[in-house]
From TrEMBL, chain A:
Pfam families linked to this entry: ABC_tran
Any one Gene Ontology molecular-function term assigned to this protein's record: ATP binding
Top-rank lineage group of the source organism: Bacteria
UniProt lineage: Bacteria, Pseudomonadati, Pseudomonadota, Alphaproteobacteria, Acetobacterales
Protein known as: ATP-binding cassette domain-containing protein
PANTHER family registered for this protein in UniProt: CARBOHYDRATE TRANSPORT ATP-BINDING PROTEIN MG119-RELATED, SUGAR ABC TRANSPORTER ATP-BINDING PROTEIN
Domain ABC transporter positions: 24-264
Alphabetized InterPro entries for the sequence: AAA+_ATPase, ABC_carbohydrate_import_ATPase, ABC_transporter-like_ATP-bd, ABC_transporter-like_CS, P-loop_NTPase
Residue runs in coiled coils: none
Region (Disordered): 1-20
Keyword line: ATP-binding, Nucleotide-binding
TrEMBL record, chain B:
Subcellular localization: Cell membrane
CDD domains assigned: TM_PBP1_transp_AraH_like
Organism: Rhizosaccharibacter radicis
Protein name per UniProt: Ribose ABC transporter permease
InterPro entries: ABC_transp_permease
Amino acid sequence: MDQVPLDLHPPHDPQLPPPGTPLIEIRDVRKEFGHVIALAGVSLTVRAGEVLCLLGDNGAGKSTLIKTLSGVHRPSSGTFLVEGKVASFGGPRDALNAGIATVFQDLAMIPLMSVTRNFFMGREPTQGVWPFRRVDFKQCRNVTHAEMRRIGIDVRDPDQAVGTLSGGERQCVAIARAVYFGAKVLILDEPTSALGVAQTSMVLKYINLVKSRGLGVIFITHNVRHAYAVGDSFTVLNRGRTLGTYAKNEIAMDALQNLMAGGKELQELSSELGGTV
Amino acid sequence: MSDATNPTSATAPSSPGTSANTAGTPPPAGAGLSARQVQIRSLVQAAGMLPVLILLAIGFHVLGGHRFLSAQNLSIVAQQASINCVLGAGMTFVILTGGIDLSVGSILAASAMGALIVSLMGGLSWLAIPACLAVGLLIGLVNGSLVAFVKLPPFIVTLGTLTAVRGLARLMGADNTVFNPQLSYAWIGNDGINLLGFTIPWLAIIAIAVIVASWYVLRRTVLGVRIYAVGGNPAAARLSGINVPVVLMFVYALSGLLAGLGGVMSSARLYAANGLQLGQSYELDAIAAVILGGTSFVGGIGSIWGTLIGALIIAVLSNGLILVGVSDIWQFIVKGLVIIGAVALDRFRQGSGTRT
């Protein structure tokens, strides 16, 4: 693979709000499915130019929360502000239009379709007048090729299937797609959980780059190490509730791990196993 | 076909094994195909069953006393293929989204009944063709809304309408054959354009027009791109902002509309319609044409040209077996075995037995 040198600290994108501006604010959001309470009061704030890590064990409500933020579910109650205005999304499309792009772990791409088609999926540029309006495949190809070069992935042929890319490359393509289409907030659903070491560092590097450009990032993971590598603040979820939000200088990695896993019990187990958990 | 450049490696999961890619080693097989190789590969896939079609035609010509490849006989084959071609085109759209439409034969019967009944209404007889298309479209919309909005499985929905619409077709004519010897649009089924001594039947022209229009929609328009996306992975399509129910609605409505067009074509040919017999098991021929054409039952892979070739293979088989003098009973057996054999051959040639 050609290694195009990657600019790790690009200048702040002037079209995005200044760093630190709250992009998404949710307060005491609840979501119930019948009798099942998935979210029992979650609050968090995502700011421009910051990575907010959302940590929590399985069943803590991470998936429900991101589906709520990305417009798949409507919250049952609570406040949901996007750039200071109350947001009410009727579907994923509304969230996309509001600048909230979500990269789902398995559902980001269609493996059998080409990189180009995946890149423009749902937002295909057209040319000509109806009824002869058609997809401008040439533009799609050129843009995809240029964007892939920018993030250091050399697709020799933009028509190759996404399935031929590695897992890390797929995540990066999905992130690049979101950035290209003007996302202000990027929600990443466990982007590193199925990846090897080299690919993980590739994705983390790219998250850092996106942050430098001025986007707000919500990084969902249950790997504290990955979170600590790129995160500015950490919100821990447990049983549908926020246990707390901490800035990076307020909490150490070990404390974060304990908080996430439910504290004392795990500490005891960990010492039994020789501190390997 | 460019989406399906490499099904084997495309379906490979992103295991840590492929992670070597970022470390500078060569990417997995298939990733490094040049544009030219991809083009050739997709050409080979699009051609798919074409060699089988040509071999069958030559074989029947030799075995059937050199009658098969005559202008007159080819015109008959084209007529026989045309209705299946139109139904198969609609079926291609549906199967590309990962669905199925079993009701097209019944819709054809019901819409032909509607056309014949309206054609006998004196002053309203000019409405026969619009009525026929409207009946097809309406039933297609019912199928579509049950699949897209009520979210029932397509197989169940269209199995239901297969039966219910067949009953409706019989009800419309009080279980009798409706006959109109002065059918105003009978020219569609019996005339053609004279071109350099050949008569090209209108039925064949309609079929080709439908195929070309389908190709344009599937390959050039946003809607077509989205149909492939929905078939490839409906959840991912939805999350990227594609309105999946609208896409599904469109494909079932189109399949119904084209079945209505099939009703026009078949009633024009017969000057009559019968709720019980017309279009019986046409859905199976249409599905066979689509599958012979290499469209994947899973959705997201396939082409309309394949369906054209598939429909021609079925027509050539029916016609050729008669010319060769094979009995009706054996025709069924041979047709069935050829469908299985041809698809098996295709899979074998592509070297990927894993996909249906």
